């Protein structure tokens, strides 16, 4: 995809349970100009999840067919299920100048770095592995065995943090959200992102 895409691609990654869905949800509520990148997955829907809203829920066979057709901007196997980002919808949003936020794992973020030349990559840290475990238990959506697997994977995922543009520690949720908001605001003020603003101000001879 061209690095001239006018919209902002904000990619959020973190170990499972660190709070990325919570932060992304807040971002979408506070800034309705963002679209959420709805991924495809082969995992079963959780109670309350709707097909097409949180995810597009697919069979493994259908996912693999789409993957072979080059349908995904990135894909990965996470905790035994397949996940992928549909390329076409991302391109459509970015090329009309829309902002899009992604909630994806570190493997997917690494792939998106090369697919989307202009993305902004944010890694969310849990305050500690102990607190991460508490949050996974508190969320109540994962079985005990899944939680130990997620913690094992989390240790490896933390090692990927240096490849990201921004780091946010999700200790206090309000403070962490404020950091995310500031990242977004700073990125929208980048000079390279506002060529029309420059033209307009210079042409109107304000300076
Ligand atoms: P992820 O999307 O990274 O897997 P979630 O957003 O589902 O994580 O958060 C995991 C659990 O931790 C949820 O129950 C959520 O309400 C809780 N949580 C998120 N952020 C915080 C925070 N700053 N302090 C305490 N609990 C949090
Ligand atoms: P969950 O099943 O808990 O919703 O998500 C499990 C993990 O898969 C999370 O780390 C989430 O960010 C990641 N994930 C969700 N969608 C995608 C995607 O399209 N691609 C990749 N690589 N990871 C995804």
Tell me what the structure shows.
The chain has 207 residues and is an alpha/beta fold. It has a domain at 9-35 and 98-206: Rossmann fold (3-Layer(aba) Sandwich). Helices cover 43% and strands 20% of the residues. The chain contains eight helices and nine strands. The protein has helices spanning 20-30, 60-68, 87-95, 106-115, 129-139, 144-158, 173-188, 195-203, and strands at 9-13, 34-36, 39-41, 55-57, 72-78, 81-86, 99-103, 120-125, 166-169. It has a five-stranded parallel beta sheet, with helices on both faces. Strands 4-3-6-5 form a four-stranded mixed beta sheet. β5 and β6 (81-86) form a beta hairpin. Residues 1-5 have low confidence and may be disordered. Adenosine-5'-diphosphate binds at residues 14, 16-22, 135, 138-139, 170, 172-173, 176.
């Amino acid at each position: 995809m061209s690095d001239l895409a006018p919209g902002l691609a904000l990619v959020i990654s973190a170990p499972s349970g660190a709070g990325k869905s919570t932060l992304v949800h807040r971002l979408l509520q506070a800034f309705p100009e963002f679209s959420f990148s709805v991924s495809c997955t082969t995992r079963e829907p959780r109670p309350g999840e709707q097909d097409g809203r949180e995810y597009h829920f697919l069979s493994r066979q259908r996912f693999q067919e789409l993957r072979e057709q080059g349908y995904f901007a990135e894909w990965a196997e996470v905790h035994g299920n397949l996940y992928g980002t549909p390329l076409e919808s991302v391109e459509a949003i970015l090329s009309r100048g829309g902002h899009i936020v992604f909630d994806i794992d570190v493997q997917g973020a690494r792939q998106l770095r090369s697919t989307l030349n202009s993305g902004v990559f944010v890694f969310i840290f849990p305050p500690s592995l102990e607190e991460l475990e508490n949050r996974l238990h508190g969320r109540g959506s994962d079985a005990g065995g899944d939680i130990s697997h997620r913690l094992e994977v989390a240790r490896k995922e933390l090692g990927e943090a240096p490849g990201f543009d921004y780091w946010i520690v999700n200790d206090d949720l309000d403070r962490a959200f404020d950091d995310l908001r500031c990242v977004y605001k700073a990125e929208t003020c980048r000079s390279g992102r506002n060529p029309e603003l420059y033209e307009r101000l210079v042409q109107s001879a304000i300076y």
